[in-house]
């Protein structure tokens, strides 16, 4: 598995897209900090971008890589190597290279602008951790979709749809149900509803750390009570881990049956 | 004129019959109460360095009571310390500590009842229940005092400077922290509160009710539990105050409830959950205020008429404005909005497209507060954008027709 991981990783590291992605984050970090020197405020703006963009890039990269390296994968499958190892190697390779682009791309400008001396360091670290989780989650999800769909165009379509659903449509349904069921106590509901969407979960996790929690009033109090404690942090992190593990599990399950 | 009168009066007293009585542990008068009993109107009582364990000291003569550095009156956590019922007194350079907590009586470090023309200056109060409690008095000055305590909850703590049924008071240069309310006014008229710093109080930094014709300026209210509350008052002027970091689920910079004919200008509201919350406010002019990084800059609840928001700077607030009633005849004009995306073709400094401060999301949040968990979600950005392009839900007439392109106050 390590060999395949290494191969995938180096393959991606050599590819143009990794560089584009890395340079995009690098530029973004520099421009943000250039426009306002306040590291704290830059972290808030970054959150908006990371939460939307990281899943999107993860999804597209995952699907793209699967379909592009399909022939090579089939060649590998002909060798006496465990299937699971091949795909896990590829998966970890992609996720790891994307995460590296994210962490280095944003880390370099922020460190240069004096992050280490600022109070935002914890928030920034949380942002990167959440961003990395989102990478791992969405690459896994897109690999699932790609594995289940032979047709490349369809696969891309489904993957984009999945992203659109989790990033936008889910929130729409969530918001509408909140407005519709106005008269019921909704705090538990919204707490659970955020758990089912990794993007929402990451957003709330960062929002609460960024002190906007006080705005949330009563619901905020419930949220803060839950997420604000170490226990809540632990729970939400483990749910993010579950969000990584579950698609991987399904991937392996699918692999066993798949006829290449 | 009044000040001069007071000074002349005091001066003449001291010239005519100035007698100074010293209090120290080894003096003839070893207790403050004894010295006061021995004094006559116009005398000075000088309390030498040392700790005096006394409480419920009756001050019923027109005297000057002052100490030096190291003069401490310890109330033994038992009742009030100074209880004053005389006119024309001066209290300065004292330190009073340990005032007893009571659930039935208002124990205070300095309690002033039915007095006129007095000065309380440079007094340090620590570990107190109420600090300076003034009832039914007039023409008093409370200057440069420092009041502090370690209040834990509202039920068993008192207010710093508590003034009730008074007029022509001046509260200047005090620092109050760790109390229930920093400065509390009830039925106080024609008074001035300025250059005070009120911070880390568990309820309000400043709290006033039924207090008309008062002026508040150059004060700083910071990190208070619920911010500043002003209620049921008329003809108030508030300027150059700073309302900072009042951050909590039920906090605001400034709460206005049933306020009429008031001027609020040149204030700074920074990092409050709600900058200004208005309920039943009429004829209020908000001018040249800066709202910086608040949750809501302004939240208008209901029954507000003829409020004019002019030349304010709204910068980087999560939500600029929440409105849950009709716009009535409230007006927004010539404000600067950091989120304004319009253009100014004729270069006159005023945007050519009107700005709508109420977003669809803040409209939704007003109806369903729980929806706030969607803050900063992509979906919310999308609906806000579509609402901005063609308003359907948000009040049609609520807009700033002449938004400024540049902010008014460059200092921040």
Automatic annotation (TrEMBL), chain A:
Question: Is Membrane a UniProt keyword of this protein?
Answer: yes
Species assigned in the record: Lutibacter aestuarii
Would I find Lyase among this entry's keywords? no
Q: Where are the transmembrane segments?
A: 20-36, 42-67, 88-115, 121-146, 158-181, 231-249
Q: What is this protein called?
A: ABC transporter permease
The source's domain of life comes to: Bacteria
Question: Which keywords does this chain's UniProt record carry?
Answer: Membrane, Transmembrane, Transmembrane helix
From TrEMBL, chain B:
Which residue ranges does the record assign to the Periplasmic copper-binding protein NosD beta helix domain? 148-342
- Provide this UniProt record's keywords sorted from A to Z: Signal
Top-level lineage group? Bacteria
Q: Where is the signal peptide?
A: 1-18
Q: Protein name, please?
A: Nitrous oxide reductase family maturation protein NosD
Q: What is the lineage of its organism?
A: Bacteria, Pseudomonadati, Bacteroidota, Flavobacteriia, Flavobacteriales
């Amino acid at each position: 598995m390590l060999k395949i991981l290494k191969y995938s990783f180096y393959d991606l590291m050599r590819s143009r897209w990794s560089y584009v992605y890395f340079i995009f984050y690098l530029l973004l970090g520099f421009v943000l900090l250039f426009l306002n020197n306040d590291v704290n405020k830059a972290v808030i703006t970054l959150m908006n971008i990371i939460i939307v963009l990281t899943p999107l890039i993860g999804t597209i990269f995952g699907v793209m890589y699967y379909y592009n390296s399909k022939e090579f994968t089939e060649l590998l499958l002909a060798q006496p190597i465990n299937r699971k190892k091949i795909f896990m190697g590829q998966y970890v390779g992609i996720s790891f290279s994307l995460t590296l682009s994210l962490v280095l791309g944003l880390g370099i400008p922020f460190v240069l602008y004096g992050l280490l001396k600022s109070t935002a360091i914890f928030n920034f670290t949380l942002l990167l951790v959440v961003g990395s989780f989102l990478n791992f989650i969405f690459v896994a999800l897109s690999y699932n979709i790609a594995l289940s769909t032979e047709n490349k165009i369809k696969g891309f379509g489904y993957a984009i749809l999945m992203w659109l659903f989790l990033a936008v449509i889910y929130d729409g349904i969530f918001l509408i149900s909140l407005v519709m069921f106005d008269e019921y106590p909704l705090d538990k509901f919204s707490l659970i509803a955020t758990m089912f969407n990794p993007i929402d979960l990451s957003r709330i996790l960062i929002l609460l750390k960024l002190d906007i929690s006080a705005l949330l009033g009563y619901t905020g109090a419930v949220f803060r009570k839950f997420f604000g404690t170490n226990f809540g942090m632990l729970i939400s992190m483990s749910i993010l881990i579950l969000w990584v593990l579950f698609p991987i599990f399904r991937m392996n399950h699918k692999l066993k049956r798949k006829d290449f | 004129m009044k000040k001069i009168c007071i000074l002349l009066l005091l001066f003449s007293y001291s010239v005519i019959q100035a007698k100074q009585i010293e209090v120290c542990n080894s003096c003839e008068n070893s207790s403050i109460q004894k010295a006061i009993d021995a004094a006559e109107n116009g005398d000075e009582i000088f309390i030498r360095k040392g700790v005096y364990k006394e409480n419920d000291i009756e001050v019923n003569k027109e005297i000057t009571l002052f100490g030096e550095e190291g003069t401490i009156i310890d109330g033994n956590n038992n009742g009030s310390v100074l209880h004053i019922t005389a006119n024309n007194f001066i209290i300065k350079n004292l330190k009073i500590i340990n005032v007893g907590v009571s659930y039935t009586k208002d124990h205070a470090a300095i309690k002033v009842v039915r007095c006129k023309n007095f000065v309380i200056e440079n007094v340090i109060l620590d570990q107190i229940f109420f600090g300076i409690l003034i009832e039914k008095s007039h023409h008093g000055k409370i200057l440069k005092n420092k009041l502090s305590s370690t209040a834990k909850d509202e039920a068993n703590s008192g207010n710093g400077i508590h003034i009730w049924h008074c007029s022509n008071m001046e509260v200047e240069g005090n620092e109050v922290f760790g109390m229930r309310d920093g400065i509390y006014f009830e039925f106080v008229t024609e008074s001035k509160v300025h250059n005070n710093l009120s911070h880390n109080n568990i309820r309000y930094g400043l709290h006033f009710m039924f207090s008309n014709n008062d002026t508040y300026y150059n004060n700083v209210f910071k990190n208070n539990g619920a911010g500043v509350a002003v209620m049921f008052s008329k003809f108030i002027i508030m300027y150059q105050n700073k309302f900072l970091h009042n951050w909590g689920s039920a906090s605001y910079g400034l709460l206005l409830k049933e306020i009429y004919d008031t001027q609020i200008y040149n204030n700074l509201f920074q990092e409050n959950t709600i900058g200004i919350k208005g309920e039943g406010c009429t004829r209020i002019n908000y001018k040249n205020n800066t709202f910086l990084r608040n949750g809501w800059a302004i939240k208008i609840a209901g029954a507000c008429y003829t409020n004019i928001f002019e030349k304010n700077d709204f910068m980087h607030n999560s939500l600029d404005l929440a409105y849950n009633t009709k716009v009535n005849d409230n007006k927004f004009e010539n404000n600067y909005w950091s989120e304004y995306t319009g253009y100014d073709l004729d270069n006159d400094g005023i945007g050519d497209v009107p700005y709508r401060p109420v977003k669809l999301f803040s409209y939704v949040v007003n109806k369903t507060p729980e929806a706030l968990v969607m803050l900063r979600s992509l979906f919310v950005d999308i609906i806000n954008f579509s609402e901005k392009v063609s308003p359907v839900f948000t009040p049609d007439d609520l807009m700033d027709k002449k938004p400024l392109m540049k902010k008014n106050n460059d200092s921040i």
